[in-house]
Task: structure prediction
Amino acid sequence: MPFLRNLLWLAPIFALFTTNAQGQTQTRIDLEGGYAYQTRNTCAIPADSNKFSYRDLMGRGPFQFARLTAILHDDETSGYRILFAPLTFSGVGRLNSSVKFNGVTFAPGVDTLGRYTFNSYRFTWWHKWRPIFGANVRAGWTLKVRDADVSLTQGSKTSSFYNIGPVPLFYLFAERDLSNRLAAEFEFDGLVAPAGGALDLGLHLSYKLNDGTRIRASARYLDGGTGSGSAYSYATVNYLSLGLEFRR
Result:
């Protein structure tokens, strides 16, 4: 599957890093893939130009996605998380009205290729709390680097806008065993500010195959964006996925 091939080459790098850095402590690598659905995706470049909907242009989905995560235990009470989450939507549709996008005007009623990329790279420091209602709880801070690229193309006419930058987020994670093999997880990265924000909420069910391997099913909700300056971009995305966990 093409969307997984882009990530699989990173797995040995994650494994090598965790082995070297945390050889005597517990580590975990998660690989998940599935389908994403955009329920909202409104954009304007610059922010004060006319808005259009990528969702209306290219459809709700589904679109393929994958994520790769490494969770490292520094000691009994703290650790780190590294997340690589690429995301790209693309499709051909027709604009409902004329759109001026980053200085280029695109006509309505003409086949138009839209491409929306929002890659997320995150580094989290977390600290373990006392169990709450039987759940193991971790909380900390995430430094997210957004790597975004949006574009429109009509024939030979094209325009794109690229943006990269850091975003600080609050991190919360809870895990509770439901049986000897079944466990539930809650995962959250998020922060809201006057100029915009980001919310990433995940719910997971995992089933233990053996001491080192689990399979899991996940549902995820992502919402966020910014509405000032060089870009107006707000998106809401829902995810469904299956994955594997490797623990030691």
